[in-house]
Structures are given as structure tokens and as C-alpha cells.
Design brief:
The protein is α/β, with parallel strands linked by helices and about 300 residues long. The chain has a single domain, classed as Aminopeptidase, CATH 3.40.630. It contains six helices and eleven strands.
Amino acid sequence: MHGLIRKTSSMYLEPDVFYRFDPTAPPVPVIVDVSRSGRLYPMDFRSPVPFSALHDNVSMYVEEIWKDAPNHGATLVQALFPNTYIDANRHELDIDPDLIDGEWPVPLQFVSKSGLGLLKTVSRYGEPLQERKLTVAEVEHRLDQYYRPYHRELASAMDRMLSAHGFYYNLSCHCMSAVGAPTHADAGQERMDFCLGNLRGASSTPEFIEFVAEVIRAQGYTCSVNTPYTGGELNRRYGKPDGTRESIMIEINKKRFMDVASFKKNEGFEAIRGVARAVLQAVTQRARERAACASRSTATGAIENRFI
């Protein structure tokens, strides 16, 4: 392992794997995860494509856009490793068997046929990302040292929220290309400013995802729901439609905050940060009111039980 988690004030670090930023305001059961902004490339990372092509697959600046989460009472967990090394938003068995040198010890569940699974075989624009096959030991190393610790941290934080409050809100945050890439279902099509997903109703209630969509639209931006993306492994693993585990994906159109050629922030960056702050304010307030209501109901029930 990379060593024990290091603590500095409200920030926790597992070197090379993740940051966790704890609330600096009264905490609420809201967790923001940023799984695809990592840019610490491990020493064993190899790819034949130019670095600019690799960088284009990173959710650039998303960790900055949502960095105010702790100021609103939410917890922020950010992966430090790149998703082109191993993607925390894919199932750990979603592996192309043709990429493996050897035989995987259990049956694989290869569903990302476009090459964008746990281990990317192509970039967003179809360029081959791997220079050779990977051994079972190499893939297990990536799972054990990066993927699983990140998910353990997320699961631990969410379990604590669930135990304390009976629910949590999870915002899984990413960014997307302005136009659908060749490897995606909406190839060549212009996209809205934001896209929210809940696996078509499997990872949150309709009320919660529409609540967030309306907050975004109220800021003057367009927002689609479950198109062109519906969500990923993070939503599948941590969300349910019963209202106890509300997990939604939030994708932001890159052209709204960065120059996709130079990777530099553009004039829209601060405005997009403002939208993120509005979402954080609304979601944490919703969580705070819900938790307070549940607390009052529990207290009332306890008093009534004394007189039964």
C-alpha cells in the first residue's frame, strides 16, 4: 500500500490515491466525488498516444469547480490517479479480455465494448491507448493500490452518513466534450451545458435529480437528464431509487469553462464555479432540512414512547 492516510487540518491524503476534504461548516450527509480529474501518472503508466491526447481524457478542473463543497458542509473525495490508468467509474470486471496477457481468475463482465472500460483500450477519439497487453498481476496491482482504496474511502464516508442520518446525497462530478465523440452514442451531436444522470431512475429518486436540474437551469444554463450519459459505476454502486442513497452524475460541457485545444481556463470558468456553488448550497440545505426533520421525528417518538 502507499502508506497510512495523512491528516492535515480538514484534509486527508492517501499518497497518489486520493484526497478527502472534510466539512469546514456544520456537516451534512452530502458527498461529492471527483474520480476522473487525477493527473498523477504512476511510473508504470505507458501509452503510445501523445500526452495531449491523454490529457483530453482527464476531467480537467472539475476538482476546482467543486472545491467549495466542504464550505457548505459536504465531504469531497478526489482521485489523484488518471482514469486512463484505471477508471474508478467502471466495474472492476469490465475488462476487455483481449487486453489481458493470461487468463483472468474469474469470469469478466466486459460491457464497455467501445473500449472505455476499466482499462481504456482507446481514447475518447478512438486512438489506441495501450502499447501492449497487461498481465493479471499488473491489473491486480492497479486494483489493489488505486481503485479499491478509492472506493473503500467513498464507501466508508457514505456508510457513516447513512448510519448517522439514514440517507445521503452523492454528486459524482465529471466534464464532457461539447460534441459527441466517435466512441460515444451521440457522435457528432452538440451537447447541452450540463448533463445529469441517475441510470434512468436506478440510482436516485426522480425528485432529487429534477431538483438539481432545476437549480442549474435557474442559473441560466441548459441541462439534460440521462442523455447522452446516464451515469456509471459510482452511481450504480452507491445509489438506490428509494431515497436513502441518492446518487447522481453531473457532467459539465468543457467549452463552458476551458479551451479544449490549450487546456486553459476560459472566461466562463468562474460562472461555472458559481453554478456549482448554487448546486452545493441547494443540496446541502435540502440535506440539512431533511436531517433536522428526521431528528425532530425521532425526538417526538422518544417522548411519546415514554407515556405509552
